[in-house]
Design goal:
Structural class: alpha+beta
Number of domains: 2
Number of helices: 9
Largest sheet: 4 strands, mixed
CATH topology of the largest domain: Glutathione S-transferase Yfyf (Class Pi), Chain A, domain 2
Order of helices and strands: HEHEHEEHHHHHH
CATH architecture of the largest domain: Up-down Bundle
Helix content: 40-55%
Number of strands: 4
Radius of gyration: 18 Å
Strand order of the largest sheet: 2-1-3-4
Shape: globular
Length: 231
């Protein structure tokens, strides 16, 4: 029978509570998707910091859990059939947790929610991340304006798509769902961390700013944004 001790990742990050979901993450926009979902569902979890400053993500133990060396990842001791399940990719984890808890992926809206989750995974996240690199990080030193403009324009376009979808809705697919937990942390990062809202047309949006504030007002969101706690 497979137990948590059979997974090498538990040797580098020993479980404090081996009977609950083990979360390996950082409070980044991708990382907090999962901690927010865990908080919203009330699922017990044990959050472990994967310290990029120490290259934890490149350690053999972490790579045994996620060969793509990205956070977040989870190890659920009570997976399907009662066997431990290791899982990476934030979107896949959100779907798994929604199915496990029976929450935030309504049966009647399942595929609408998933399509907006994929909108974030394939569009919003990668494009905002690239804009952040060229606007806020080392890419801002590149003199050629074309890379930054490409991602700025695409970020603005995606924000307009989202703004249109939110017309007359509090949440992107109707009910609050895992799609919102995926999208809103990236909006917060674009506006507050990358400081790129103004150049991406944030001030012209009719619905997105209030949507982000509704999201941030949720107590479970506020708790999830702080996980895993840094020492």
């Amino acid at each position: 029978m497979t137990v948590l001790a059979d997974f090498p990742v538990t040797r580098r990050w020993p479980p404090r509570r081996p009977d609950v979901i083990q979360l390996y993450s950082l409070p980044t926009p991708n990382g907090v998707k999962v901690s927010i979902m865990l908080e919203e569902c009330g699922l017990a979890y044990d959050a472990h910091v994967v310290d990029f400053g120490n290259n934890d993500q490149m350690s053999p133990e972490f790579l045994s859990l996620n060969p793509n060396n990205k956070i977040p990842a989870i190890l659920d001791p009570d997976g399907p059939g009662g066997r431990p399940l290791a899982l990476f990719e934030s979107g896949a984890i959100l779907i798994y947790l929604a199915d496990k808890a029976g929450r935030f992926l309504p049966e009647g809206q399942r595929y609408e929610v998933i399509q907006w989750l994929m909108f974030q995974m394939g569009g919003l996240g990668p494009m905002f991340g690239q804009l952040g690199y060229f606007h806020h990080f080392a890419g801002k030193e590149i003199e050629d304006p074309r890379p930054k403009e490409r991602f700025r324009a695409e970020a603005e376009r995606l924000l307009k798509v989202l703004d249109g979808q939110l017309a007359g809705r509090d949440w992107v697919a109707g009910e609050y769902s895992i799609a919102d937990m995926a999208i809103a942390p990236w909006l917060r990062t674009l506006r507050d961390f990358y400081k790129a809202g103004d150049i991406a047309g944030w001030g012209a949006l009719q619905n997105v700013p209030a949507y982000l504030e509704r999201f941030l007002d949720r107590p479970a969101v506020q708790r999830g944004l702080l996980q895993p706690a840094r020492g």
